[in-house]
Specification:
The chain is α+β, with helices and mostly antiparallel strands and 71 residues long. Helices cover 21% and strands 21% of the residues. The strands form two sheets. The chain has a two-stranded antiparallel ribbon. It has a two-stranded antiparallel sheet with strand order 3-4. It is globular, with a radius of gyration of 11 Å.
C-alpha cells in the first residue's frame, strides 16, 4: 500500500474492510492488525491469509491511483 500515491478515497475500505482502514494520524489508508507487517510514512506492508486475498485483489484492481500492490 503506497501511502504517497493513496488519495484516501475509501474504495479499499469498502471492498476489503477486514484488511484496510484509515490511519487517523496520516489520513492515508493502512493495513489493519494482525495483517500489518511494516508501516512507514511511505508504505504499509502486510501479509494476508488466502481467504482474504480475493477481496484485496479486487481492492487493488479498483484503486483509482494504483496504490495497492498484491504479490
Amino acid at each position: 500500500m503506497n501511502k504517497e500515491t493513496c488519495i484516501s478515497c475509501g474504495v479499499c475500505w469498502s471492498i476489503a474492510p477486514k484488511v484496510f482502514e484509515l490511519d487517523p494520524t496520516t489520513g492515508k489508508t493502512k493495513i489493519k492488525e494482525p495483517y500489518l507487517k511494516n508501516d512507514s510514512d511511505k508504505e504499509s506492508v502486510g501479509e494476508i491469509p488466502e481467504e482474504l486475498r480475493p477481496d484485496v485483489e479486487k481492492a487493488a484492481s479498483n484503486c483509482p491511483v494504483g496504490a495497492i500492490r498484491v504479490e
